[in-house]
Amino acid sequence: MAVLPTLNKRVGLAENRIMGRICCLCISIYFLFILDGRCSEVRGFTYFLSGRDGAGHTLFDRFELYPNGKASWQVASKGGTCPSEGGIFLGHLNEQEKKKLLELIHVLYESEKEKKDIADKTEDSTRRARHLFQVEYDNAVFSFELSKAFANSQAFFQELAFIKAKLQPQRAIRMTATKEKITEEKGSKKQGQAAGLIVSFLNISTESVRLFFPKNPGEVFFLNKGEKISYRKPPLKRDILLHKGKNFSLTLDTATSGKMPGPIYYDSGVMVHHALLNLKKDLPPVMEVFLCAGESL
Amino acid sequence: MIMLLIYFISMTDLVAHPPELESEGTSTILGNGSINRNIFGENYGGYGYLASSESEAHQQIQMACDTQTQREYLAAYCRGQVLDSDRPVSELINNTMRSVVLYRLRTHASEYLALNIKAAASALGQTVELERPECVSETSPLWQRAVKKSYNAKSKMSAKAEAIAASLRGDNMARALMYEERLQNGSAQNSCESMTGARAPACTSIQHTSYRLQTSFPALFNFAVQGTNNNPAALSHKTSRYNEFRNSLCYLMGTHNAGNLSEEQARARGLAYLEEGTKLGPYRSLEERFGHALAEATNAPPNTLLGKAFREYRRAERRLKEDHMGRMTQELANLCKNRLSVFRMDNHDRVNIYSMALQYPNVVRQTILDMSPSERGLTKAVLCEAGAMPMLQREPQCNGVSGGPLPENDIDVARWKINDWPNGSQNFFRLSRPKTPADAPITVKLNINFTLGPSLAGLPDSDNNGVPDQLECQLQLWRVDINDWANCSVGAVPSASINTSNQSHCPTGPGSGPTRTMPVPPTVQKRCPLNSNMAIIKPKVNFQINMVPTNENPAPRPNVQLHRCYRLDIPGSPEDRGDCEKVKGVHINKCITEHPGMLASCISSGQNEEQCRTNITQFCRSEVEEKFAANPTAMNRADSSNYTLDESYSVVRHEVFHQLGLADEYYSDERPYSLLGEHNSIMRASRSLDSRLYPRHISQILDVLHCPEVSGEITE
């Protein structure tokens, strides 16, 4: 029996050694996880499409999913071949939706992470679109640019399209354009006058939106092929605060407005956060609205 | 004798306080209908930049400093008097001239400093008494107006005060800090410490932008002169409160929508966003993140983490302003003191002028803009003589420039030019000039090679010359348009037919080659130059721009590929972007987003979600197929190395001038601090046929003449 304690002690030592090794292994694995944030859970991400096309039209599209499930989508034009809505859209994803999207973003990150030189290159002034991602893991934030083939990201973008469809406008505008109807009554002031374009802006969101109408409408309105544009009657104010549910219309004249097919663009040319100067505190920032209302022409 | 004494006293006073003339200078941005007048991006320069555009304001100091040009500056000041050709310029510029220029610079600097002090005081809710520096006349209109409490909203002073107040706003300072860190990252990525090799142009561009940014935000960055009297140098550093402000804005971003994070975790999260965000190319997303966090934090309850972060941010912002006010007050008090030459009497004005250019480059720019043409001539000559120009202006990029000097040898440009880091463009053109007559224009020759993308395979080629009819037709129309418009713009031809419609007129079917009937687009006959101020271009230029089809693979540079389908926002290779099926795929996703109610109503009808999704995707596919069959080009979004066959004339003009080295002049995500042009500048507005060239554009193309590699023309 006297041997037993010694034996037990020996066994205990051996056990301790094994346990010690296991512990060391555990700690190593733990630190591996800590140091490599990619092993941890994805908490949120930001997708950002940046740039302009050859004609100078903005591509701005920014989707963000926050750790608390809140989703924010800011877009120059909402979608389709001739979109009419742009602005900020908000929503809250349920756990299932959130999990699915975060899994897809993790897969996308894994497929792109080998490419490390995203910032280490200059860009051709002539090519301007970039898909950028920032993925927030539990312990770190990683950035990458989507550079591989379309197929790699198709599942993610399709899921994103369904999520975007569920979001509600927070600060957004719907623009429509219709051809003016001219009554050809004798003696009418409008007799012989070329038909203009009636452009309307409707605030479809919950917050107020500020719009710019400069002295020269050619600075913000663009017809498909760059024809000259003038106001029938200049707006009384150059910047208009459009409240929830309100509509603002004006008539534009162009040499070919009666005949021109194709879209009309309103592009304030400025970005949301650059418009705060000289505004009162209670005013919202200026929207960059880049809208197209060609369908109704 | 007494009369003589009085005369001498009055003369001394005249030299000490020379008459302060203020012309209207270049046209003001006020009242010209610019929608961006109130936008920080348009006049961020810290001192207003009252020119027609920021690009133009910077062009005003983009001047040569060779002997001949300096003589011309002086001749303008001396109102056409013949200068002694035997005397060197340094002898033609006397101490009185230097004193006059220094006085003007100091007066403007006093205005700048006074406006800074007042803006900071106003932001802090304080009032200040300004003390006039002794070297500024008591009757100086600039000083008088600067010390007034309020300005006329339409005055130049008001715009300057506005710009300075903007540079002291917390959100703008935060953006400046973030972009400066973005530039620092860019500098590290390009190994700019060594400044050698192919990346040197990127480094030059980064450094120039960084210098502009730093001088525009004096509350964040500080400049001082160091070195010796003969070799003064710039010293730039972050102000003492910089890091405190940086930490506070990281904390703010880290707490926004963070869930249940601790304070420590939130700080780490915010810092990670800053560090990662400033590594990315278009870092706009970081600015957006900050903007959203700030907007939400303003209304956050004080007991929340976000509320706490907001208070810390505001405290840090306030401390920055307090420090800034103290420093500006000290600088105002020291304004009249000599720099680096307190005990030396020889030529200290030269060092002081150098010092002004170093410490207050925005002030020097504004001073030049505010001057009459003759004063401008003198100031430019004196600034050149003081060696101050390298600090104020951007050096020409000389990589890939060979040949010369003109007219004996042509100059070849074959390079990747970094116009505005990280953006650049291919430049492959040639400058030549006949030996006679002496004032013959310089010819700018550019050949652009066009290839067809895979989606355009099989286009009709009725004359079997290997070039599809539609391509031949389109290249000819673009070629005629760009040459007529560019040569008329610079006055190289007395008149020209200029297109009045941006629409393509080439038939898409067979029989559209030049051997067939060429379409005639609508034009109007114009007298040239199209704008009178182009008459000042010197030396004169003309353009020979050729657009040729090629089957070579890879196509010689510069090259453009043409497509039937093209979306620049499709990730992957150019082939991916030119793939019609992938273009349709983008539109299918957009269609899904456009029909928000469809999924919900499908699920509520009893079908499972997966089935509903499949149905919606199928519906969208058929919608897109239908639209594509009706008008495939409506689904495209091209960039300028990839056109569609109906690309508009004005866009082609814009892109061709990129290939001659011009930078974009519009606001862009990637370049938040790039210089903006006028609303009708071809480099800003590419959608309008009324967009025009400005004299600065031609100067920028001819910048290569200043390169030592091709010297002999302008450089000494």
Structure description:
The complex is a heterodimer of chains A (297) and B (716). Chain A has helices at 3-35, 95-112, 150-165, and strands at 42-50, 61-65, 70-75, 85-92, 123-124, 130-137, 141-145, 168-179, 197-203, 209-212, 221-223, 229-231, 239-242, 247-254, 264-267, 290-292. With 297 residues, chain A is α+β, with helices and mostly antiparallel strands. Chain A folds into 2 domains: 42-117 and 124-166, Mago nashi protein, CATH 3.30.1560; 172-296, Sandwich (Immunoglobulin-like). A 10-stranded antiparallel β-sheet of chain A has the order 7-6-1-2-3-4-8-9-14-12, covered by helices on one side. Chain A has a 3-stranded antiparallel β-sheet with strand order 11-15-16, with no helix packed on it. In chain A, strands 10-13 form a two-stranded antiparallel sheet. In chain A, a hairpin with a 3-residue loop joins strand 6 and strand 7 (141-145). In chain A, helix 2 packs antiparallel against helix 3. The radius of gyration of chain A is 29 Å and the shape is elongated. Chain A starts with a helix and ends in a 5-residue tail after the last strand. With 716 residues, chain B is of the alpha/beta class. Chain B folds into 4 domains: 2-167 and 360-392, no CATH class; 171-331, no CATH class; 401-563 and 642-710, no CATH class; 574-635, no CATH class. In chain B, the strands form 3 sheets. In chain B, strands 3, 4, 5, 6, 9, 10 and 11 form a 7-stranded mixed β-sheet that branches. In chain B, helix 5 (95-123) packs parallel to helix 6, helix 5 packs across helix 7 and helix 14 (348-359) packs across helix 15 (361-370). At the A-B interface, strand 1, strand 3, strand 5, strand 6 and strand 7 of A face helix 8, helix 11, helix 12, strand 4 and strand 5 of B.
How are the SSEs placed, and which strands pair?
The complex is a heterodimer of chains A (297) and B (716).
Chain A: H1 3-35, E1 42-50, E2 61-65, E3 70-75, E4 85-92, H2 95-112, E5 123-124, E6 130-137, E7 141-145, H3 150-165, E8 168-179, E9 197-203, E10 209-212, E11 221-223, E12 229-231, E13 239-242, E14 247-254, E15 264-267, E16 290-292
Antiparallel strand pairs in A: 1-2, 1-6, 2-3, 3-4, 4-8, 6-7, 8-9, 9-14, 10-13, 11-15, 12-14, 15-16
Chain B: H1 2-16, H2 54-59, H3 67-77, H4 89-92, H5 95-123, H6 141-147, H7 156-167, H8 170-189, H9 200-216, E1 221-227, E2 232-238, H10 242-255, H11 263-277, H12 284-298, H13 305-333, H14 348-359, H15 361-370, H16 373-385, H17 389-392, E3 401-403, E4 411-420, E5 423-432, E6 442-452, H18 469-489, E7 495-499, E8 523-527, E9 541-549, E10 559-563, H19 574-577, H20 580-594, H21 596-604, H22 609-630, E11 642-644, H23 649-658, H24 695-701
Parallel strand pairs in B: 6-9, 6-10, 10-11
Antiparallel strand pairs in B: 1-2, 3-4, 4-5, 5-6, 7-8
